[in-house]
Amino acid sequence: MKVVLLEDVKGHGKKGELVNVSDGYAKNFLLPRKLAKEANAQAMNELKNAEAAKAFKVKTETEAAQKAAEKINGKSVHLTATAGQGGRLFGSVTAKEIAEEIKKQFQVEVDKRKISIDGEIKAFGSYPCEVKLYHGISAKVTAVVSEKQ
To answer: Nearest-CA neighbor of 101 among 85, 83, 80, 87?
Structure first.
């Protein structure tokens, strides 16, 4: 019997998949527990629509990430910080501060957890950073730290 899974079923498939199971397993286990529904014309149509919606969502998110990557790739993000003697910063420049500056300067929303910095930024200078915008899409930016006037 062909059924469309409504939940993940161990050993058979994930939610939304069309699987072929034995009649007894479907009638006595999957259907009474609302883990699956019979694969009739209506269920197949719903499955097809859900897959199309998912593909459209992935496509739009990928396009948005590509546009954001084009906007910030190769650009410099200018940050200011206070420092003590010898040019050492009080504390360090964090990914959160870099994300806020990217939003201010380029109007691109970036999650601070998606910014990777090589080491810590504890002195003035330029530091390369990688911003991961979407699966397989990233941009390289340079964080330029200067002294607060």
So the answer is: 80
